[in-house]
Amino acid sequence: MSGPLRGLKVVEMQGIGPAPLAGQFLADLGAEVTLITRASGKADPTDINNRGKRSVALNLKSPEGVEVALALIDRADILIEGFRPGVMERMGLGADTCLSRNSGLIYGRMTGWGQDGPLAQTAGHDINYLGLTGFLNAIGHADRAPAPPLNIGADYGGGTMFLLFGIMAALYERQGSGQGQVIDAAMVDGASALMALIHAMSAGGLWSERREANLLDGGAPFYRSYECADGKFIAVGPLEPQFFAELVRLAGLPDDHRASQMDPRNWAERREGYAALFRQKTRDEWAAIFEGSDACATPVLSWSEAPQHPHLAARGTFVDRDGVTQAAPAPRFSRSEPDAVAAPPAPGADTETVLGQLGYDRERIDSLRAAGILT
What we know:
The protein is an alpha/beta fold. The protein contains 14 helices and eleven strands. A six-stranded parallel β-sheet has the order 3-2-1-4-5-6, with helices on both faces. A three-stranded antiparallel β-sheet has the order 7-8-9, covered by helices on one side. A hairpin with a 2-residue loop joins strand 10 (318-321) and strand 11. The chain is elongated and about 80 Å long. It comes from Pseudooceanicola atlanticus. GO terms for molecular function: catalytic activity.
């Protein structure tokens, strides 16, 4: 195993959403990620979030299963868990227990609402966290309900990435202190932090709370998507005047629009005019017109089209593993290049190997399996 995180040992508790993606990103860059799962099963090549990990199946309702998990955590640099507050404690795997045994452990806790606060024990999903932070209210058309941006804003942008940021910061701090700590990564915190620019614009009087009335929410006619003659779409985003001038020139827009680009009094009328213009050609015809220019106009591609785009193909942004198209590891490194993408393991496939590395002999492993501790 190679990559910039080679030698880093991670234990991940089976879950959904942002925690598995965090484990995937660490494994992608060379960390040894051991997933503790509930039961053994068949390998699934489409289980992309678990690619490159090891998998151990344990019955954590038994003291013996918890002891195996603790033995793994004792040797880990990082633990990742995404349960509601208190669940790990009830299993006997809480932060105090784990840090008392492994004082250098970085204990990463991933939740939507955080470890405390009135909603900490309440269920929720990405759309709920975005709704509470003001994020969701800003997205979509003015005359329709707010549109959820998939589950990227809170789960992954505000969740996964801030969990990883916290973990990396704690690892850096550990170099001086020698001590681990708990990371409380809450999606509501991370999603709010992502909106720093919007908060700044709002404070400066440059952002309205009305949807589709602002520079970056589709209100500006030069920053939105337009339907083309074939029902497909083009994404237009030349914010800077020199780039907008290119759009005006190549699309055949009125030249006097350049001088009044940023005047919002013109935006509603111009959105209609630009929409009519872009409906005159197909998406690919427009893409050919803008190709290689600084007009900041690009085709809106489908999931299946994206890997075939010449730029993404040239960079190897997508890879194929066992017939499953998926994103390549990111970012890129000049020296410590990670290994090629590895397949997801079958749940529980590495149980005996991992226990052997922990010092369990064959007789003990067989005994645990017979007792239903190894599932």
